Amino acid sequence: MGLRKFKPTTPGQRHKVALTFEDITTSKPEKSLLVKKKRSGGRNDTGKMTIENIGGGHKKRYRIIDFKRNKFNIPAKVASIEYDPNRTANIALLNYADGEKRYIISPEGLKVGNEVLSGPKSPINVGNTLPIANLPLGTVIHNIELKPGQGAILVRSAGSYAQLMARDGKYATIKLASGEIRRILVTCLATIGTVSNAQHQLQISGKAGRSRWKGRRPNVRATVKNPVDHPMGGGEGKHSGGLPRNKNGVPAKGFKTRDKKKASNKYIIERRKKK
Predict the structure, then answer these.
(1) How far is CA 220 from CA 12, 47, 53, 96, in A?
(2) What pTM, to 2 d.p., does this model score?
(3) pLDDT at 18 over 80
(4) How far apart are the two ends of the chain, measured CA to CA in Å?
């Protein structure tokens, strides 16, 4: 998708950069794949606000996405490429040969009318899903499972991708976009290609109201709060606030919160690169 800059006819339009949506082929979703999406407004089951800066926003309905791709050896045609308000990537509606309809994360380059297939013997084409054991080394992939049959967990956001580096026994080595290199079982499924809508990160909203449409309320700095509300609050006059930490007192900026004994540590060969 391309980008569109606006003329500064209003203060909100001055710096706005929006997507052109030329890849989107329909504005109406498939009704049978929609479910209601409840909003919490940052409140827990007792009505107490436990998360700040959440509330309001435009109504959305959740699109049921097929992350498992478990309809093996049944060809499907791409009926439409659609916008999804619940994620940064576009989604594609598939019409299977047996009559079923499903949504998938749309990869870059997938077009209406293309045929996609899932299964060990699928051809090496964009949008096809295969076990990692059946993919050639060096393939760019997305929608990767961590446990066989679990459904895709990794590499699902707009423009993201991973690369299959090596295979050794029952494990494959995968390099993620963050720079992390980790081992994954070769029986896990992955989809060929890069996730669509890579231009997403180049958007500029232009005004504060756009955040409110997304359900994001204004953020108050910690140092201007009272001590009852935040560890960095209080004090006479302007204060630096001391060491930066979150509302629960956990240090921010570089403090590692990952469990040193976490079971999956043994699968991570190299941690992500620091930016």
Answers:
(1) 22, 21, 9, 49
(2) 0.91
(3) yes
(4) 27
Q: Is 253 helix (H, G, I), strand (E, B) or coil?
A: coil
> Rounded to whole angstroms, how far apart are CA atoms 257 and 250?
9
CA atoms of 21 and 5, how far apart (whole Å): 13
Q: Judge whether 263 lies within some domain.
A: no
- Nearest Cα neighbor of 178 from 201, 160, 205, 151 is 160
Q: How many angstroms separate the CA atoms of 222 and 207, rounded?
A: 23
**Letter for the amino acid at 27?**
S
Tell me the pLDDT tens digit for each residue of 176-218.
Answer: 999 999 999 999 999 999 999 999 999 999 999 999 999 999 9
* 240 domain-assigned: no
Which CATH number belongs to the domain containing residue 11 in this structure? 2.40.50.140
Tell me how far apart the alpha carbons of residues 97 and 90 are, in angstroms, rounded to a whole number: 23
Does residue 72 form part of some domain? yes
User: Which domain does 98 fall in, by range?
Assistant: 3-200
Residue 179 domain-assigned?
Answer: yes
pLDDT at 273: 81
Supply the Cα-derived Rg of the chain in whole angstroms.
Answer: 22
Helix (H, G, I), strand (E, B) or coil at 102: strand
211-240 per-position pLDDT tens digit: 999 999 999 999 999 999 999 999 998 888
DSSP-derived secondary structure for 52-86: SSB------EEE-B--S---TT--EEEEEEE--TT
Rounded Cα–Cα distance for residues 70 and 143 (Å): 13
pLDDT tens sequence across 109-142:
999 999 999 999 999 999 999 999 999 999 999 9
Number of domains forming the structure of the chain: 1
Phi–psi pair at 222, nearest 5 degrees: -65, -40
Confidence at residue 4, expressed as pLDDT on a 0 to 100 scale:
94
List the beta bridge partners of residue 3: 19
